[in-house]
Amino acid sequence: MTTDSSLLNSELELQQQEELYQQLLLQSVGKLQSESPSSKVIRPKPGICVKTVLEGNKEKVFVNICQSNSVPPPPDLSREELVELLQSEDPSGYRVPMSLGEPHSEVDNNSQCCSAYDVVINQEFFQSCQNDPLFQQFVILVSFEGLENKYNLELSRDWKVLKNRKFLGSISEQNIRTKSKPVIQELLSQCPLNDLPSPSHRPVGGATATKAKRPEFTLLVEPPDGDPEYLIAEIRLPGVPSSGSLLLDLGEDRLVLTARPSLFHLDIFHPLQVDQENSVAQFNKSTEILTVTMPIVST
Question: Measured in whole angstroms, how far is the alpha carbon of residue 258 from the centre of its chain?
C-alpha cells in the first residue's frame, strides 16, 4: 500500500497554518491586555429632558440628554454643513460621541410608571447646540437613534422638551473609556491572517456593501462550538493605503470604523457584549483586510 506524500505534506501545512493562526490570535489579545486603555466613572451634569412615547404601545419614555467634558466632542459642524448633512442620503456619516445609559424605571408627575434613558454628550457641544433650535433637534434625533439601535426601540418623533425639568429621576454615574480608539496594528507578514485556513468559525452576522462607502464585513465567533470566547470582525478595505487612514471606535455592543478621507464608513451593532478595552485590531496591507478580535463578556 502506497501513500501519496503530497497529501501528507498538504495536511501538515494546514495543521501548521492553523497553529500559527491560533498563536497569532493569542499573542494579539495578550499584547493588548497589557496595553489596555483605561476607563473612568463620571457623573454627568443635567441638560434637557425630552418626553416621547414608544411606537406601538404608546408607553411614555423620557430621554435625559446630559453633558460632560469627559465625552469627546464631535467634529466642528457649521449650520450650513448641518443643513447639507440632514438633506444628504447618508446623514449617519457624521457621528456624535455619546454614552448611552441603561434604562431605569421612574414615576412621572401623574404618578404613572414610565421608562427613562440617560444620554451623555460633550458639554461644550451641548451648550453650543442650545443656541440654535436646529442643532437641538439634531442632538435629540441622534440620541433617539442611538437608543433605538442599542435597545431595539422605536421612539415617536413627536417629542416635547420639558421646560421646567432638566432631568427625570436621579443622575447615575456612567463608566466611560478615557481612550476610545484602539490602536490598529499593521501587518506585513508573508503569510497574512486571512490567507490561513481559519478554523470553522460560526458566523453570527455580516453584510455586503450596498453603497460605495459601506465596506464588506463578516462577524465570526471563536470557538465554533461551545461557549464563544471571541468575536472576530473581518472588514475588507480595498484602496486603503495604511492603518493611519483608519479610525476605529469600539463599544460594548457597537463597532464604528471610518477610513479617511471618506473612503468607507461602517457603524454596526452586534448581538454580543464584548470587552472593548482588551480588544485588538490588525490591518493587513497586503490583503487590505482589517481584523478586529474582541473578547466576549456575555452573549
Answer: 11
Exposed, middle or buried: residue 23 (CB in 10 Å: 0-12, 13-18, 19+)?
A: exposed
Residue count (the chain): 299
The pLDDT tens digits of the residues spanning 19-36 come to 555 555 555 545 544 444
Cβ–Cβ under 8 Å, residues 61 and 52: yes
Q: Are 134 and 82 in contact (CB under 8 A)?
A: yes
pLDDT in tens, 192-233: 333 333 333 444 444 333 344 789 999 988 888 888 889 999
pLDDT at 144: 92
Are the C-beta atoms of 35 and 279 separated by less than 8 Å? no
Model pLDDT for residues 50-67, shown as the tens digit of each residue: 999 998 888 999 999 999
Q: Are 119 and 64 in contact (CB under 8 A)?
A: yes
Q: Are the C-beta atoms of 172 and 104 separated by less than 8 Å?
A: yes
**pLDDT beneath 50, residues of the chain:** 2-6, 29, 32-37, 180, 189-212
Using CA atoms, how far apart are residues 119 and 94, in angstroms rounded to an integer? 17
Nearest to 62 by CA among 114, 112, 126: 114
Using DSSP's 3-state secondary structure scheme, residue 257 falls into strand
First to last CA, the chain: 50
Helix (H) or strand (E) holding 67: strand 60-68
- The residues that bridge with 66 in the sheet, in sequence order, are 120
pLDDT at 45: 92
Return d(Cα 246, Cα 261) in angstroms, integer: 9
Whole-Å CA distances, 110 to 106, 113, 159: 11, 9, 18
Output the pLDDT for position 254: 87
